[in-house]
């Protein structure tokens, strides 16, 4: 591919590129670029929002470049303050490494392991003497750090801003120095942190990295960015039926956004599909089914996508209960002495909600049914024996039959 063709491919979905001229210059050197992506392992699952930037990194790999994956085992113990109005809880190293082990196989569902170099930033940040930390801090001014909108807002509202949070962008920026990155990828909310890396590379006598920023994927609620903490996400390891059903629950207006960022459908085709449903030539539901099939195919297989599509039509279009709902046992530790079980605890206990609190919210929102009857009491208590054989529905897409 010619450089202009490569640039055109890499521009897909990009929110900002600093700078395109520098990237073109680096590409024309005809040697593999070191493309950095930093991850702070503070959650257990990779979701489609995170996959947006991982897929861009894979695109660089497919063009012959090297992915430099920085596992922030050191910086995760600080906690990225980006977008936060209060100081984050600092994680222990044991918590961080537990997340790392769970994330690795998910990351390599997207990335090519043969073209990926994995680094742990504790290998350099954790070995710094205090004098070296002071020297690093001398490379950046307080005034520049306080240009960060979230930092400035906290100070303006007399909210705490820890010294460790101020050091976070320097730590992340120094990662680029440590591995001599040519390009750094990130979400648009990482702009400040990534630009610090450019500045520090100059200070340390290196050529500054190009910064390529991807937009934040809007979650299932159609409002906030996709986030595990908000529960509005689609995990890349979720079963095909569940993934398909979640995509079908998206607001129609998000379809172009998802086609561009989450699939490989050519942009001209995305424009045609969008035009067709917006002008009423096709039913938006059919376009959304195409979107769901594309996404499930990427993380499972085209065959799994077809089966998920057929299942969705059977369950939701024909209003049939699923014949292959998973059979689950009631966790013994949730059964109380009187033989009863608290419904929110049961929903969370079988993995259909991240916590009892989320399960209560789902019940209050009318999203839980037992054998077709809605449960309205967020503190419902039921006999465990009476649950056996009954079909539970949580949300629109999760079914289970109790053993």
Overview in brief:
The protein has 403 residues and is an alpha/beta fold.
- The helix-and-strand class reads alpha/beta
Strand content: 5-15%
User: What does the main sheet amount to?
Assistant: 6 strands, mixed
Compute the number of strand runs: 13
Helical percentage: 40-55%
Helix segment tally:
18
Q: Unreliable segments (pLDDT under 50, ≥5 consecutive)?
A: none
* Rg of Cα set: 24 Å
CA distance, first residue to last residue: 57 Å
Strand order of the largest sheet: 1-6-5-2-3-4
User: Oligomeric state of the chains?
Assistant: single chain
Outline the secondary-structure elements.
Blueprint: H1 3-10, E1 16-18, H2 20-27, E2 34-39, H3 48-62, E3 66-71, H4 93-107, E4 116-120, H5 122-125, H6 130-137, H7 142-145, H8 149-156, H9 163-179, E5 183-187, H10 191-203, E6 210-214, H11 240-248, H12 255-262, H13 267-278, H14 284-299, H15 302-317, E7 327-328, E8 340-342, H16 343-349, H17 356-364, E9 368-370, E10 373-374, E11 381-383, H18 384-387, E12 391-394, E13 398-402
Parallel strand pairs: 2-3, 2-5, 3-4, 5-6, 7-13
Antiparallel strand pairs: 1-6, 8-11, 9-10, 9-12, 12-13
Describe the structure in your own words.
By secondary structure, the protein is of the alpha/beta class. Helices cover 45% and strands 13% of the residues. The chain has 18 helices and 13 strands. It has helices at residues 3-10, 20-27, 48-62, 93-107, 122-125, 130-137, 142-145, 149-156, 163-179, 191-203, 240-248, 255-262, 267-278, 284-299, 302-317, 343-349, 356-364, 384-387, and strands spanning 16-18, 34-39, 66-71, 116-120, 183-187, 210-214, 327-328, 340-342, 368-370, 373-374, 381-383, 391-394, 398-402. The radius of gyration is 24 Å and the shape is globular. 36% of the residues are buried.
């Amino acid at each position: 591919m010619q450089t202009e063709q490569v640039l055109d491919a890499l521009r897909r979905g990009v929110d900002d590129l600093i700078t395109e001229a520098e990237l073109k210059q680096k590409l024309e050197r005809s040697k593999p670029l070191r493309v950095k992506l930093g991850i702070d392992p503070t959650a257990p699952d990779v979701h489609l929002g995170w996959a947006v930037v991982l897929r861009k990194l894979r695109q660089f790999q497919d063009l012959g470049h090297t992915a430099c994956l920085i596992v922030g085992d050191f910086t995760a113990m600080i906690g990225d303050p980006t977008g936060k109005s209060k100081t984050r809880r600092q994680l222990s190293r044991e918590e961080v490494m537990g997340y790392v082990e769970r994330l690795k196989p998910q990351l390599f569902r997207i990335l090519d392991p043969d073209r990926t170099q994995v680094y742990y930033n504790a290998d350099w940040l954790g070995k710094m003497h205090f004098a070296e930390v002071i020297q690093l801090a001398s490379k950046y001014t307080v005034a520049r750090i306080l240009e960060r909108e979230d930092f400035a807002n906290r100070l303006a509202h007399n909210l705490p801003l820890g010294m460790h949070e101020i050091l976070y962008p320097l730590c992340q920026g120094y990662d680029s120095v440590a591995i001599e990155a040519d390009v750094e990828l990130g979400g648009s909310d990482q702009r400040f942190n990534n630009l610090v890396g450019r500045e520090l590379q100059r200070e340390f006598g290196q050529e500054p990295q190009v910064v390529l920023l991807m937009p934040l994927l809007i979650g299932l609620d159609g409002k906030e960015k996709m986030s595990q903490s908000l529960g509005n996400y689609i995990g890349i390891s979720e079963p095909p039926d569940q993934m398909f059903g979640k995509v079908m629950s998206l607001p129609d207006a998000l379809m172009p956004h998802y086609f561009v960022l989450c699939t490989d459908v050519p942009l001209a085709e995305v424009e045609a599909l969008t035009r067709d449903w917006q002008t009423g030539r096709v039913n938006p539901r059919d376009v959304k089914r195409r979107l769901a099939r594309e996404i499930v195919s990427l993380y499972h297989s085209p065959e799994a996508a077809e089966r998920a599509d057929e299942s969705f039509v059977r369950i939701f279009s024909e209003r049939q209960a699923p014949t292959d709902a998973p059979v689950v046992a009631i966790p013994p530790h949730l059964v109380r002495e009187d033989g009863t079980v608290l419904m929110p605890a049961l929903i969370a206990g079988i993995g259909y909600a991240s916590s009892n609190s989320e399960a209560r919210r789902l019940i209050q929102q009318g999203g839980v049914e037992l054998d077709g009857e809605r449960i309205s009491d967020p503190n419902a208590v039921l006999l465990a024996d009476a649950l056996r054989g009954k079909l539970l529905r949580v949300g629109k897409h999760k079914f289970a039959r109790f053993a």
